[in-house]
């Protein structure tokens, strides 16, 4: 059978490709390889030569494409090039690699190294940001659709690839390696390329009268390399493996009479001139390697002996030293070496380095699961050193988006905040600057990046946040891919009537209308500011709604659940609590499918949430066709100026992502919690152990995910939904009763950050021109009414004045008349308007002392009055620990009025602002 | 000659390994990296401000840290380079640690001075993220240094070098109900005193006839045994009493299954014989404080700030008293360190001067007055220097009348000057004998492992401490080796 010829007539319609990978630049301690640039040029010339080349110029994919010496080559890019070639080539595929190669101590697992590759002391996963020939490259190429695959490796230990040469049955595949297994090769000359590639170039371009086949190349190159020596004087013998007959790599050249016959290949490399030597080596004391392009005259044979003796001495040293020192030595050698050899010492020593800390920000709905997965990641290898530490935390989805949009303030908070304390300080209020962000859905990423990189926060979200004017984006947010999936569903109790046909393929509004037509039903959902899932559901809920609908929906929800649950889990827990039983029976919930599936589990089943009870009905998932699926995108966050460990951090982030997305243990953490795993091209079908496949969920969820909402950019629509949500409940009536007795100052809770005045002033930012509000001071002489410090009423254009008045308030040397103040405030809020639906909020801020002093009969009266109508929610802020305990006055007022009691165990500033935002129309949040 | 040349780079690299190794080993012999403190003055002008990162102050201290920084700024009003700015971090300790580590490793934010929990010093020092501070051998500066309470100052040291100055400290104390003890005929001389023991506490509990089965019944004592740092603290206190030292001063594991069993038994004794409040295994600081304040425990292990908080919660002063914790008490608190990047920059001197100011005798007095435990011995003495006047004024707002003359409201009748002086004496003494939690760069992993094991043990009805100790020993060996 004649050798395969990609340029033969029979293959005219085939697509050929050569992927040429050259890694010249290394960021770690590994030497750069300046000869690689020349290698790429030589290979390009040889393969696309007008006469002999088997490729057309457009068939070449060169990595890096452009950029010269500083161009970086990442394994991701190489993988992408290989994947694309795997699917896109049906003729000849040539893959060429020049760069550093590295193997494990036993010689197995050749890894190709790229610009940011590094070696760790992790015994099981020592190589980071490399591609394993065995596990990455070979499996990719094994699935190639090409007629012929030819791989050429010009790197140290290239021969070690031969042991893992495993083409598919019947596949035509040839592998040519620069040397035999275990052999390292010199880095080559920048001007002429490496010895191996230079010889290959000559063979390919001087084929005389017949085509240059793979077989001819093998013979020719072995002959060409025979006079040379590899590192340590080892014979330099290129090696090969082949599956299939033969393949043409260069066409026949026209004989040129003037040129001498090239075969056998010339023993001397073409340049530069100088006497050949077989034993070069520098003195061990000659310091760091000179730039490779600085010619050096090195010839002395004695030097080689000295180098060899240094190496022997080192080996002896390793043999004699303690384990600890051996590991240190191995580390030094591996890092300082030219990258070709790697000596992994015993990892049982006790000198583990400092782990790299990864900060992982996630959506509140995801935190428990991501935390579990991260813990499993840290435990995945309990024998090796911990190379990373991971801290998983959450923040309200909207806060996270806002903070990313104003990321310069996340990096460095504003120099000064207004006295009201009303400014964005994400380090304090959102959390650590993340290295990884796992929002619930890609829409959060869209919102964070919408409208370009710089902070146009105020315009984009309509919040008018003053600090945002100066904020700009100093982050790059790279999506590395989903780690799991779960669709948003409407969970409807079994007992409610709803046509089966509405389980799939209908928009949310149609399902909701049908449900509400059939029986009284409440639609409940967590805080749309809190989780991305709730916001996406809210957006669908508001779609195509008639005027006033949003207000009706939100008011009903606020009445059903006085405190908006911050996560889907909290919503379900709230329903499971007995006091909500009446509501529970008629509540359809908008939650992720995984939450619904968990709460459907019967008692005793693993994965059943702690808070649930038998009172909670079994619910069936209805899949709205207009709510996008939660696709848990893994986003790498890169901060401007964070360049101290950029390469290492990037590698650690990518490694964690790869593990999350592919490792069975990682995926188990998600599927155990009812998520759907990350498959090749979307959600994987639930496996046998999945919560979704439990018999409790047999009738509740679909095995195949029905059609979900669009994955297009929905950020504008979501911002609009948020604004409508924020406006839905107002305008409101809000009265603050501020305890200004001297004890607040004595206890140091009056002034300063987190002090009573700042808390009040800050929360007032959530009130707008349409809201009626005021501030009373409670410390007055006995028998007097509370001081009308900011008179109750509309404050058109005077919001700042009211805040300033609060920050200027003084303490008074009287007891705070809490009981009278509360009673009068309730009257004020209830009178003067006939709109019973208008939100009313009474905020009591106290150090707790005078609250405790209220007598029991007064308490009873107050609690009874608080429960009256129109509804006034009472939020008590007690700046002293323990004052909100069960049965204390703050707790009783909250229970009677559907309000809350906040003490230092809660994040008072954030929670109070959220409570006021619910009643007001201003800058919510 | 090309051949020879082509080998050169490779060979030289190999040789560089050998040279690098020699340099490395000799550096190790002379004390290792960080052997010198860079002056950081390199002729460049320092640029301000000095950025101080610290956790959100959740103690209700009235922002005393902010006030101290403002005092420093007023004292350096003319110098832009010396102005300091406080950057607040989240209140939760694990997030503070994560941000400080991540930011200092990567450079994602600039910090010059960091306020570190004392248990993090080895981790940050070992990772080279903070820089050792120069040690004064003689003179005023040396004397000033010696004023720090010895055991508190020891929390700044890692492998023989001091990396920080102690800012505020903390120590376990015993709160109790003298009224209930007296009512059970336990006379004052048999109530807690300086040398009180756990056996005496058990005996009092027995006399009181307490045997709580549910969380709403009165218990002997309560503490923080939920699976978080509080559980680690309580466990380390019991371990220290049983003579169990988990690590040496350089983080090497020093215990064994046998010793750990003694420690675990000691902790279980406290739970059992002390008739601990059943809710304690899910209690943090706030819950345990509330249980004590509401009469569901006669004794309470808590931190100094509870002294002020209880005054508000319990009404009458005679209802509670405080003394040293029987046995060993664990140290808490925070230390101020200069980041390594800043130590190499022109801002180094200013950053160190700021730390010196923030931990001065006057500033420490301000911290004590604001409810923190101060780190200097002199602050607890009657001759202590007063707090900076403007800070004191800011902490006591304008219009506030002096305490002794106050009318209407009654802080003075709750904490008499005598009672406060006695409390300060007790606190000072407790600090001088307090013990540290293990010193290790792997503290985060250690505390997780300990909490998991111990909390599981507390949940069992008939725990096998020998088996638990074996498992714990195995896991701690790994953890302290960074695995």
Description of the structure:
The complex is a heterodimer of chains A (925) and B (483). Chain A is of the alpha/beta class and 925 residues long. Helix content of chain A is 33%, strand content 16%. A 6-stranded mixed sheet of chain A has the order 2-1-3-7-8-10, with helices on both faces. In chain A, strands 26-25-24-27-28-29 form a 6-stranded mixed sheet, sandwiched between helices. In chain A, helix 24 packs antiparallel against helix 25. In chain B, the strands form 3 sheets. Chain B has a 5-stranded mixed sheet. Chain B has a 4-stranded mixed sheet with strand order 8-9-7-10, with helices on both faces. Chain B has a two-stranded antiparallel sheet with strand order 4-5. In chain B, helix 2 (64-75) packs antiparallel against helix 16 (389-395). In chain B, a hairpin with a 2-residue loop joins strand 4 (157-158) and strand 5 (161-162). Chain B has 2 domains: 50-170 and 332-413, Periplasmic binding protein-like II (D-Maltodextrin-Binding Protein, domain 2, 3-Layer(aba) Sandwich), CATH 3.40.190.10; 173-331 and 429-480, D-Maltodextrin-Binding Protein, domain 2 (3-Layer(aba) Sandwich), CATH 3.40.190. Chain B is α/β, with parallel strands linked by helices and 483 residues long. The model of chain B is unreliable at 1-43 and 397-413 (pLDDT under 50). Chain B: InterPro entries: Bact_solute-bd_prot1, SBP. Chain B: It comes from Streptomyces atroolivaceus. Chain B: Keywords: Signal, Transport. Chain B: Residues 1-30 form the signal peptide.
């Amino acid at each position: 059978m004649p050798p395969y010829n990609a340029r033969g007539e029979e293959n005219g319609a085939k697509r050929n490709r050569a992927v040429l990978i050259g890694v010249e630049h290394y960021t770690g301690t590994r030497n750069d390889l300046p000869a690689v640039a020349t290698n790429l040029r030589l290979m390009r010339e040889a393969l696309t030569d007008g006469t002999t080349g088997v490729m057309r110029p457009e068939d070449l994919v060169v990595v890096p494409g452009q950029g010269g010496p500083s161009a970086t080559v990442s394994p991701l890019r190489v993988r992408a090039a290989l994947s694309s070639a795997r699917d896109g080539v049906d003729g000849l595929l040539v893959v060429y690699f020049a760069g550093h190669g590295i193997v494990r101590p036993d010689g197995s697992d050749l890894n190709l190294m790229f610009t940011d590759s590094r070696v760790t002391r992790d015994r099981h996963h020592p190589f980071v940001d490399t591609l394993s020939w065995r596990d990455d490259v070979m499996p990719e190429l094994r699935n190639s659709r090409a007629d012929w695959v030819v791989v050429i490796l010009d790197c140290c230990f290239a021969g070690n690839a031969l042991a893992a040469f495993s083409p598919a049955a019947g596949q035509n595949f040839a592998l040519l390696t620069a040397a035999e297994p275990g052999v390292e090769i010199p880095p080559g000359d920048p001007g002429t390329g490496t010895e191996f590639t230079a010889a290959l170039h000559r063979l390919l371009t001087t084929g005389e009268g017949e085509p240059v086949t793979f077989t001819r190349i093998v013979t020719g190159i072995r002959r060409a390399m025979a006079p040379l020596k590899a590192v340590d004087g080892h014979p330099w013998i290129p090696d090969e493996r082949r599956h299939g007959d033969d393949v043409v790599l260069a066409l026949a050249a026209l004989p040129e009479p003037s040129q001498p016959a090239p075969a056998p290949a010339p023993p001397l490399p073409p340049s530069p001139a100088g006497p050949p030597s077989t034993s070069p080596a520098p003195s061990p004391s000659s310091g760091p390697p000179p730039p490779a392009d600085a010619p050096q005259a090195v010839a002395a044979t004695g030097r080689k002996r000295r180098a060899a003796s240094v190496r022997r001495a080192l080996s002896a040293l390793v043999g004699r030293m303690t384990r600890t020192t051996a590991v240190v030595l191995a580390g030094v050698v591996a890092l300082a070496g030219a990258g070709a050899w790697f000596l992994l010492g015993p990892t049982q020593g006790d000198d583990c380095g400092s782990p790299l800390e990864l900060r992982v920000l996630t959506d509140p709905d995801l935190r428990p699961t991501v935390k579990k997965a991260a813990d499993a990641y840290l435990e995945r290898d309990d024998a090796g050193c911990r190379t990373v530490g991971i801290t998983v935390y959450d923040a309200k989805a909207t806060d996270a988006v806002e903070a990313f949009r104003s990321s310069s303030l996340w990096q460095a908070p504003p120099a000064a905040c207004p006295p009201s304390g009303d400014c964005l300080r994400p380090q304090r209020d959102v959390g650590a600057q993340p290295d990884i962000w796992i929002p619930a859905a890609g829409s959060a990423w869209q919102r964070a990046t919408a409208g370009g990189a710089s902070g146009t926060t105020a315009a984009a979200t309509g919040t008018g946040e003053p600090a945002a004017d100066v904020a700009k984006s100093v982050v790059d947010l790279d999506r590395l891919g989903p780690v799991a999936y779960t669709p948003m569903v409407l969970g409807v109790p079994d007992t409610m009537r709803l046509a089966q046909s509405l389980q799939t393929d209908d928009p949310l509004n149609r399902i909701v209308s049908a449900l509400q037509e059939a029986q009284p039903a409440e639609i409940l959902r967590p805080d749309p500011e809190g989780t991305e899932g709730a916001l996406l559901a809210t957006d669908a809920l508001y779609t195509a709604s008639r005027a006033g609908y949003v207000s009706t929906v939100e008011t009903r929800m606020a009445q059903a659940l006085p405190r908006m649950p911050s996560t889907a889990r909290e919503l379900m827990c709230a329903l499971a609590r007995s006091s909500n039983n009446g509501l529970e029976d008629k509540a359809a919930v908008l939650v992720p499918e995984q939450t619904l599936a968990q709460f459907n589990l019967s008692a005793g089943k693993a994965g059943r949430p702690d808070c649930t009870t038998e009172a909670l009905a079994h619910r069936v998932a209805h899949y709205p066709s207009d709510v996008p699926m939660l696709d848990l995108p893994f986003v790498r966050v890169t901060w401007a100026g964070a360049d101290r460990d950029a390469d290492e951090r990037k590698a650690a982030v990518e490694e964690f992502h790869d593990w999350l997305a592919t490792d069975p243990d990682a995926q188990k953490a998600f599927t155990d919690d009812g998520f759907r795993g990350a498959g090749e091209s979307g959600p994987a079908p639930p496996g046998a152990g999945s919560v979704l496949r439990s018999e409790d969920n047999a009738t509740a969820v679909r095995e195949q995910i029905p059609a979900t909402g669009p994955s297009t950019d929905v950020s504008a629509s979501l911002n609009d939904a948020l604004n409508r949500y924020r406006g839905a409940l107002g305008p409101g009536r809000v009265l603050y009763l501020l305890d200004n007795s001297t004890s607040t100052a004595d206890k140091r809770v009056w002034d300063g950050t987190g002090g009573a005045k700042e808390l009040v002033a800050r929360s007032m930012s959530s009130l707008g021109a349409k809201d009626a509000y005021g501030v009373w001071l409670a410390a007055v002489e006995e028998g007097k009414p509370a001081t009308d410090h900011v008179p109750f009423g509309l404050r058109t254009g005077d919001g700042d004045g009211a805040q300033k008045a609060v920050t200027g308030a003084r303490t008074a040397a009287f007891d705070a008349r809490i009981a009278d103040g509360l009673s009068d405030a309730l009257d004020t809020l209830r009178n003067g308007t006939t709109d019973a639906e208008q939100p009313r909020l009474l905020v009591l801020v106290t150090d707790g002392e005078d609250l405790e002093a209220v007598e029991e009969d007064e308490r009873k009266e107050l609690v009874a009055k608080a429960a009256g109508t129109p509804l006034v929610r009472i939020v008590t802020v007690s700046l002293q620990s323990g004052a909100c305990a069960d049965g204390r006055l703050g707790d009783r007022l909250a229970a009677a009025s559907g309000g809350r009691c906040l003490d230092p165990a809660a994040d008072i500033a954030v929670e109070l602002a959220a409570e006021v935002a619910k009643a007001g129309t201003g800058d919510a949040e | 000659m090309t051949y020879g040349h082509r080998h050169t780079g490779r060979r030289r690299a190999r040789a560089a390994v050998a040279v690098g190794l020699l340099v490395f080993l000799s550096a190790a012999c002379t004390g290792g990296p960080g052997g010198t403190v860079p002056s950081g003055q390199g002729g460049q002008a320092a640029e301000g401000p000095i950025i101080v990162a610290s956790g959100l102050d959740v103690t209700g201290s009235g922002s005393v840290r902010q006030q101290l920084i403002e005092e420093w700024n007023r004292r350096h009003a003319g110098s832009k380079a010396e102005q300091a700015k406080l950057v607040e971090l989240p209140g939760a300790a694990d997030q503070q640690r994560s941000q400080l580590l991540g930011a200092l490793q990567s450079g994602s934010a600039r910090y010059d001075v960091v306020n570190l929990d004392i248990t993090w010093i080895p981790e940050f020092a070992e990772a080279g993220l903070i820089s050792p501070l120069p040690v004064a051998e003689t003179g005023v500066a040396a004397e000033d240094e010696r004023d720090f309470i010895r055991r508190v100052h020891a929390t700044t040291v890692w492998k023989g070098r001091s990396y920080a100055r102690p800012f505020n400290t903390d120590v376990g104390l015993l709160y109790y109900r003298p009224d209930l003890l007296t009512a059970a005929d336990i006379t004052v001389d048999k109530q807690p005193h300086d040398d009180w023991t756990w056996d005496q506490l058990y005996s009092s509990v027995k006399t009181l006839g307490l045997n709580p089965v549910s969380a709403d019944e009165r218990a002997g004592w309560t503490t923080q045994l939920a699976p978080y740092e509080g559980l680690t603290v309580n466990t380390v206190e019991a371990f220290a009493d049983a003579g169990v030292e988990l690590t040496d001063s350089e983080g090497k594991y020093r215990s064994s299954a046998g010793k750990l069993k003694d420690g675990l038994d000691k902790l279980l004794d406290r739970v059992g014989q002390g008739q601990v409040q059943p809710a304690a295994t899910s209690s943090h600081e706030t819950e345990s404080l509330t249980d004590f304040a509401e009469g569901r425990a006669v004794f309470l292990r808590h931190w100094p700030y509870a002294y002020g908080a209880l005054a508000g919660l319990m009404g009458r002063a005679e209802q509670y008293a405080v003394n040293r914790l029987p046995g060993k008490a664990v140290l808490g608190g925070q230390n101020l360190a200069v980041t390594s990047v800043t130590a190499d920059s022109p801002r180094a001197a200013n950053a160190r001067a700021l730390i010196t100011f923030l931990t001065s005798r006057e500033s420490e007095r301000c911290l004590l007055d604001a409810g923190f435990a101060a780190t200097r011995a002199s602050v607890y003495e009657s001759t202590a220097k007063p707090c900076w006047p403007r800070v004191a004024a800011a902490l006591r707002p304008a219009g506030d009348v002096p305490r002794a003359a106050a009318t209407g409201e009654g802080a003075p009748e709750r904490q008499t000057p005598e009672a406060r002086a006695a409390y300060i004496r007790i606190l000072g003494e407790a600090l001088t004998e307090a013990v540290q939690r293990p010193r290790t760069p792997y503290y985060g992993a250690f505390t997780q492992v300990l909490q998991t094991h111990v909390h599981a043990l507390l949940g069992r009805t008939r725990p096998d401490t020998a088996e638990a100790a074996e498992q714990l020993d195995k896991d701690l060996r790994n953890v302290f080796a960074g695995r």
